[in-house]
Write a structure and sequence with these properties.
Number of domains: 1
Shape: globular
CATH class: Alpha Beta
CATH architecture: 3-Layer(aba) Sandwich
Structural class: alpha/beta
Largest sheet: 6 strands, mixed
Distance between the termini: 43 Å
Radius of gyration: 18 Å
Number of strands: 14
CATH topology: Rossmann fold
Amino acid sequence: MLEAKTVTVRLGGREVVRGIDMAARGGRICAIVGPNGSGKTTLLRALTGELGYGGSITLNGAEVARAKPWALAQMRAVLAQETSVAFPFTVAEVVALGLSGPAAGPEPGRVAQALGMVGLPAHGGRDYASLSGGERQRVQLARALVQVWAPVGADGPHWLFLDEPVSSLDLGHQLMVMRLARRFADAGGGVVAVMHDLNLTAMFADRVVLLAGGQVLAEGRPEAVLTDDRLGAAYGCAVRVNTAPASGAWLLPQAVAG
């Protein structure tokens, strides 16, 4: 289980995240949503141990701030919004960086399998720098997957932390990535994803944390959080939540002009 209690993060002398309480469990997708500047990425970076914080964050019972880097690497993998690669690595070499995590293990063929899962089976030998932005994003997802290959380990669920995982992708690849996240969660792993697309959030998330002004405005099931009033309050505009009976994706939030 991931649990945050009264979490506060200060950056540049300013409180970006203030007194946040939230929880996520293995076997579920937890989406963090909210407007630009609401603290989504800052909160995710605190949850993964990248940023210092006040309060408490525990992952599988371990306080994140006190955990050794290798211990965190055993439990979770992180897909950042952007990842710079300074060396002339091939795609396969970038993905193989995930194999250095203690939880990953040396199983042969895992890199190729992961590249197949993200729709890049023939790209292993290519120069990483030659890829498009969307292709690089999928390569980095493959790297995260090989790090936490088994969704559940001896000490509990493994975790994928995803920061805007579909931001550079077309519609088909957006669905592919979210289905991979769904498959990982259905196998017992935990997924925490910062999301901007509220339609995909409604389709795939089991739990939603809605942020505004660095605080939790609402937390719970998508149908309880993604409402006209709450989304309007968070985003500062009139919002109408529609229903799409044919697809079953019942939440299609739209901003109302005027």
